[in-house]
Specification:
There is one protein chain. This protein is of the alpha+beta class and about 230 residues long. It has two domains: about 120 residues, Pseudouridine synthase I, catalytic domain, N-terminal subdomain (Alpha-Beta Plaits, 2-Layer Sandwich), CATH 3.30.70.580; about 100 residues, Alpha-Beta Plaits (2-Layer Sandwich). Helix content is about 25%, strand content about 30%. The strands form two sheets. Strands 1, 2, 3, 4, 5, 8, 9 and 10 form an eight-stranded mixed beta sheet that branches. The longest helix has 14 residues. It starts with a helix and ends in a 9-residue tail after the last strand. The relative contact order is 0.18.
Length: about 230
């Protein structure tokens, strides 16, 4: 155990010269059952296994420079998530992608990668909207309601109040402004919606619970978007 700790400490090296890369990566399948923190640890160990020298922060408790855009709640899949990493060496994008994909599970593969030049805001500040898809757990239950009408009526409302619970207690929140679009594709049996990403916005599961009480959905985060509804890597 002591030897492992010493090896870990030797890996924690800070370099004044860092090279930042943005990864477009999936978190699907069984990975929807692991936490945000565990996924971050998995990505760090993958960089080490791939032979990539990750850069570390300075201070008494150095941490690997890996930043995940917006945490996915448990039980929700993500097709196009974003992760920023900083390496100590400049490496071609395609080489990083090949090395990481060779050691990452099939449920967490990199589809795109881009080098980040200059100083930019962190991903958490850049992401403003998230696009989701949802399919019903029980299709028979869906047939008992008119989801198209529910979606249209929701968009016509000025106020939609839900009750949110936290450590500070319960409080009412108007979520209407947090929903940019909402539509149901009857042919594909998929509900598509775009939610605002902010501290006061509802999670996807909270929104669906308010929209269709008693109905369970399988939720996938399709895209993360900026203020103009564009992806960060096309």
């Amino acid at each position: 155990m002591q030897e492992l700790q010493q090896n870990e400490q030797r890996q924690q090296v800070y370099s004044n010269t860092g090279y930042r890369y943005r990864l477009k990566i999936s978190k699907t399948g069984n990975l929807k059952f692991i936490s945000h923190l565990d996924w971050q640890k998995m990505l760090y160990h993958a960089t080490r296994k791939a032979g990539l020298k990750i850069n570390f922060s300075q201070g008494f408790n150095p941490a690997p420079k890996i930043s995940i855009a917006i945490a996915l709640p448990l039980f929700i899949e993500g097709k196009n998530e974003y992760v920023d990493i900083e390496l100590q060496e400049e490496i071609a994008d395609n080489i990083i992608k090949k090395k990481l994909n060779s050691v990452l599970p099939t449920e967490s593969q990199i589809s795109r990668i881009a080098r980040l030049e200059g100083k930019k805001e962190g991903l958490q500040k850049q992401v403003k909207w998230a696009e989701y898809s949802a399919t019903p757990e029980d299709e028979l239950s869906l047939k008992k309601i008119n989801i198209e009408t529910i979606a249209k009526e929701f968009l016509l409302k000025e106020n939609v109040i839900i009750t949110k619970s936290s450590k500070k207690g319960k409080r009412e929140k108007n979520i209407r402004a947090s929903v940019h679009s909402l539509a149901f594709d009857r042919e594909k049996n998929i509900l598509m919606f775009i939610l605002q990403v902010s501290d006061g916005s509802p999670r996807a599961d909270e929104f669906l619970k308010a929209l269709t009480p008693g109905l369970s959905w399988r939720i996938t985060r399709e895209k993360l978007l900026d203020s103009d509804f564009n992806e960060f890597i096309s």
